[in-house]
Design brief:
Main location: membrane
Radius of gyration: 19 Å
Membrane topology: Multi-pass membrane protein
Helix content: over 70%
Subcellular location: Cell membrane; Membrane
Order of helices and strands: HHHHHHHHHHHHH
Organism: Paramaledivibacter caminithermalis (strain DSM 15212 / CIP 107654 / DViRD3)
Protein name: Probable membrane transporter protein
Length: about 300
Amino acid sequence: MLKIILSLLGLLGLWFSIVFVKDFTKHKNQLEDNSWVMVSIIGFVTNFFDALGIGSFATGAALLKTFKQSNDRVIPGTLNVGYCIPVIVEGFIFMTVIEVETVTLISMLTSATIGAYLGAGIVSKLSEKKIQGIMGCALFVTALLMFAGKVGWMPSGGEAIGLSGSKLIIAVIANFILGALMTAGIGLYAPCMALVFFLGMSPKVAFPLMFGSCAFLMPVASVKFVKEGAYNRKASMAFSTVGVIGIFVATYLVKTLPISTLTWIVIGVVLYTSISMLRSALKNKEIPENMVAKVQE
């Protein structure tokens, strides 16, 4: 069954790659004016952290905004499109090396994918002000979850590698919601880790579940963002290529790293970005559609 799951993931990755490369090639002479060097560095660093379990969405959003490498409105789409290929690679790695009960794995992967598909169609059409507000709140919640894990407020989990009954239903519903929130720029890792712990599963199981969920949902969500043009093409291409290198460096070469210190730094950056996003949303005064029509006339 695992071979079938991985084969489907490979097909999804191929489908996304074709759509993404076709769109990038079509607009190669209309790329954004951000820096190839800067977005490549951001892609490498964030994917390096991602493979270590720290996550890339929060750090990616923070760095893109801090270094002014993307318009706030298209950051959600950029994160989904840019990290799609790297996360698929991570999905292959972790679903292969860590065992999860088949029904639980398939159920949670499916629910997250459906949630992302339905969510992307809404998020890609939201205004900059709404995106700023959603991301500000989402990043703040992510920081709180990370902080709770660091100070020991979150449950330590159990030994189970699968779920059944009401716990499985809760997991499926929760992962559906987390999949939809992924399209708003909130990473699934920390919430999924919390979900696994609260349901009494082994902490190790969180890795194939969260990487697998993201690997399946991101191609579906990302294709919609690509078709809407709601993403930064240059940053996404850098994340997709240079970012993969960061994953292999973190996975295969790094033996010891002060993860604890890095996590505290990430929490600080995420909180800063959350506050910055919320302040921008409060200051952003959108022009009513009827006024826009008058100006265009």
